Amino acid sequence: MQIPVITIDGPSGAGKGTVSRAVANILHWHYLDSGSIYRSLAIAALDAGIPLENRAEVCRIAEEMQLEFDCSAELQVKLNGINITPKLAGETTGNAASIIAAFPEVRQVLLQKQKDFQQLPGLVADGRDMGSVVFPDAEFKVYLTAGSRERALRRYKQLIEKGIDANLDQITREIEERDLRDSARATAPLTVPAGALYIDSSSLSIQEVIDRVINLVR
Ligand SMILES: Nc1ncnc2c1ncn2[C@@H]1O[C@H](COP(=O)(O)OP(=O)(O)O)[C@@H](O)[C@H]1O
Ligand SMILES: Nc1ccn([C@@H]2O[C@H](COP(=O)(O)OP(=O)(O)O)[C@@H](O)[C@H]2O)c(=O)n1
Question: What pTM was estimated for this model as a whole?
Answer without folding.
Answer: 0.96
